[in-house]
Amino acid sequence: MSQDGFIPLEWQEVPVSEMERRSFEIYIEASKRRTTRHFSKREVSKNIIEKAILTAGTAPNGAHLQPWTWVAISNQELKQKIRDAAEIEETKTYQDRMPEAWREVLAPLGTDAVKTHLTDAPWVVVLFRQSKRKRENGEWGPTYYSTESCGIAAGMFISAIHRVGLTTLTHTPSPMGFLSEILDRPKHEVAMLIMPVGYPSDGAEVPDIERKPLEDIAIFFE
């Protein structure tokens, strides 16, 4: 008998051989995901962005508070405002704020303060983390594990975008307070991530890098 407020789990067992096959296919598909800064201006259906956000919204999260707000922008004027503000902050970072250790690891990736992806990509999706929540008594209370929850949701959004055949880029200009102002978000929402979404441009390139092998990222106790 289910407890009050609970419903039965919908779950169907999958044969081990099928799980093995799926796990390999999922890995192969994910291994082809790459981050590019070269986007086509080709249009992308709003419906696709909506479904990717809904997919991200299924992420596990602290106390089921779902502490995220997704702002999706296709308006070119608004994207230009975001790019202009981001480039101001990024220029300051590259010129004055960036420590040598950070500059060292960025050098092979070819990044700089010019952010054409913010105006080339047909959509720019900004993830805001909700640091507070409105309680039933009308007072404000904290959210729990909101950073971790939003991080998981962002990963699911990225995976959804890749699986439908598009590409995205995780962009974190610092500081990001200008996003709250431009997008008119309340003070309890904190900008966490900018993700342009679209098709890669003709001739799009990515850094020639390799991912760490399993033995460098996992430890098993059997």
List the helices and strands and how they pair.
Layout: H1 16-31, H2 46-56, E1 68-73, H3 76-97, H4 100-106, H5 117-120, E2 123-130, E3 132-134, E4 140-142, H6 146-164, E5 167-168, H7 177-182, E6 189-198, H8 214-217
Antiparallel strand pairs: 1-2, 2-6, 3-4, 5-6
Helix pairs in contact: 2-6
What does this structure look like?
By secondary structure, the chain is α+β, with helices and mostly antiparallel strands. The protein has a single domain (36-202), classed as NADH Oxidase, CATH 3.40.109. The protein contains 8 helices and 6 strands. The chain has helices at 16-31, 46-56, 76-97, 100-106, 117-120, 146-164, 177-182, 214-217; strands at 68-73, 123-130, 132-134, 140-142, 167-168, 189-198. A 4-stranded antiparallel β-sheet has the order 1-2-6-5. A two-stranded antiparallel ribbon has the order 3-4. Helix 2 (46-56) packs across helix 6. The longest helix has 22 residues, at 76-97. It is globular. The chain starts with 15 loop residues before the first helix and ends in a 5-residue tail after the last helix. The model has no long low-confidence stretch (mean pLDDT 94).
